[in-house]
Batch of 2 targets.
Target 1
Amino acid sequence: MINYIWLILLIGGIVYGGLTGQITGVTDAILQGSQSAIELVLGLAGVIAFWSGIMRVAAQAGLTQALARALSPIGRLLFPSLPANHPALGAILLSMAANLLGVGNAATPLGIKAMEEMQKLNKTPGVATDAMCTFLALTTSSLTLVPATVIALRQAAGSSQPTVIISSTIFATLVSTLVAAATDRWLRCYYR
Amino acid sequence: MLWNLLSAFSNWALPLLVLLIVTAAAVKRVNVYSAFVKGAKEGLETVFRIAPYLLAMLVAIRVFQSSGAMDLLTQIIAPVGNLVSAPRQVLPLAIVRPLSGSGSLGMLAGILQEHGPDSQAGLIASTVQGSTETTFYILTVYFGAVSISRARHAPLVGLLADVAGFIAAVLAVNWLWPQ
């Protein structure tokens, strides 16, 4: 998919630029774009490395588990089909906590672990269960407290207030998560 | 009042979280320094792993922009954006966001460089990137891991949440920082 988007951007740009007499601009875009991409990566590296370091400290201090415990009432509410004390619920909560903290590397393995635990309860292998769909609805709608990569990008682009978007991001992520939880409940019966 | 509260929260969030995490870790007798250095090393590896993707995407977007084709495309889809008073520059990002994490990160970088990180388009694009996920990637990886072939309503729910998140991002930015 992204392969085609990339091809369309490149071929479309070069052909359209040639037809409209913008070909020198296209040449500049290739040369300067490459240079600025690497400058950007270097600009990003500091903030992202710092945040990963802090998140590693958080994980070793057991904060992921603490957050997972704090989330457990919400978990039982959202996943009524999972037996309490089943490892599936624990794995889901850990994965949600890792997502909230932005420990990107940890979130995916934890999420896959949660899927495997839910699959053990699945009576129709090959077909997603209600709990799996709810879990994916929450994961794809994203749960973030600190969008570290975006803040790093804004910093690199010379923003006067790189962290100002934390409030709007939390608002938007709350809305999309609520919509995901609600439409999951609503559409569940129509897709059996 | 609420605005002051929100902007105070944005200003305090980062230092407070760092304080909280480091203190909690110290109380639990974690070797904070060595844990931090390990994590920072992983972070650097991540950055350099995404570097080629960013390079590919940024150059392609620059080419598309400088040729004038981006203007043409955004003019065509502008009416959709007008429905929710979104600036047309952020619409391509909304389309790419559910499909590719590195692709949308490259697009965000392009928007921030082109229009400035503190412009309306820059703020909305930042919020969209931070508040949504790469829906199709997650669906593929998570369902693939347990060989689920019938995803039922999950893809539709993911996309509806992406649309809602985009509209919420536009509303939040227009409300918090009126242009």
Target 2
Amino acid sequence: MSERVTTRDLRISFGSNEAVRGVDMDMEPRSVTAIIGPSGCGKTTFLRALNRMHDFSPAARVTGEVFLGDVNIYNGEMNPVELRTRVGMVFQRPNPFPTMSIRDNLTFAPKRHGLARGKELDELAETVLRQAALWDEVKDRLDHSATSLSGGQQQRLCIARALAVAPDVLLMDEPASALDPTATQRIEDLIYELKEEYTIVIVTHNMQQAARVSDRTAFFYMGELVEFGATDELFTNPREEKTEAYITGRFG
Amino acid sequence: MSPGTAAPREATGAFAQPPMRLRLRLARDRTLVALCIVALAAAVIPLVWVLWEVVSVGAQHVSLEFLTGLPAPPTVGGGGWANAIVGSFVVVGIALLIGVPVGVATGIYMSEYGDNLLGRSTRFLCEVMAGIPSIVAGIVAYGLIVVTMGRFSAVSGGIALTALFIPIVAITTQEALRMVPRHQREASFALGIPEAPTTLRVILPAAMGNVLTGIMIATARIAGETAPLLFTAFNSNYWLEGIDQPTATIPVNIYSYAISPFEHWHNQAWAGALVLVSIILVTNVVARTLWARRARFMSGH
């Protein structure tokens, strides 16, 4: 449980456009690493390389190395399908399966992976819903459609769904950007609790959010990792001029 | 300046001309809408008229005997089309049994794995096939099956209809799957679900409403086809004895009764047309009602 994720000279390009330009980064277990930067800086592209989601875009080319623990995830040591059961992902917009009930959203993947069966599946659903602080709100309507939930509830369901396959790492791509402040607050509280058990990497547009939830922050600019360090440090006393300019709002 | 002193708009230089031009634009707008309504009427009136004729004339001649009895010679009067009604269900049923899995699977391939020469040529072939005259499908089935088996049969009729059914279903399935947002696929992939189960358990269910619509349209089309059945299922005055035997069907009966010289048979052809239209309408409504329940679940109510 909870593995370190390491990248070495990670480069990702789409045709002639290099979106991520040689990033070396260590994301520690049981901590939250935030990635900030202006639009188009490559932060989401970087995140999606960590669970090989670029495999589905024929135009994307990924070079360099990404390690989950000691295993290089790009050189064939680990099957990408297996990788994604160990590195979960929460997307920018809540994307529950619309044709499935709340329960089925949670049990679909674990059932397929053979992680649980029969009554265990119900228990698993309850466990992850409690972890995602959603149990009390949905316990009486687990058979309802997932789309009957509010946006914030749907996003917590998606987090619970990611947790249900027992990953080591949780990638979050601006998980609260489509949500209102109250729902955002709940997601942030949740991230804070989940870091006890998972390696969390969160991409965010919102610097206050990065400051609130993360232990370490990485600042990306034009596809490069400009600065990476303890969040307190980076926000109060940035080493790089570009970082300072960005966090003080001089560009972005 | 108080509101009352504002000059009327027409009087201010730059705005002096527009009212005239505006009137022209509005007139053009109204003309276009009127043209659309005329075109709509031209499309709908014949449809309503045909439906009205079928219902009003057909209803006078539908009887219990017509629905349950076997054909009688025209000189005797009476008689029914029960064998043709059964025959139509059997022939269309055979076509669906083969056509739904093949058509849907072809559509899945074209949508999910078809970004290559095989996928693109299959799509092209489907478009061509959807446009070929239906009698050609009948000739092919005749050559392949009827000649080989040595007799007309329900199964050869079903296969002829399948050839018309598959391309429609394949194309509509492909379009339906393509409409499912990309983030649905990603949600499943990110959970470590491989491509095949993602397609079958996540993407196909999300597209099922439109896939079903394609199947309904294709079914309605083949249920009314006459030409492919003329020399495959052929005809019969008796109950169907097996799918390897010739059978009467509603469309072929309509054709042969309508061109006969007997007024009694003409009336029965009208009644048959009404039965055919009703069957298509009822199955359509039933399928849609069943689907609507599922769709209500998905929209969260």
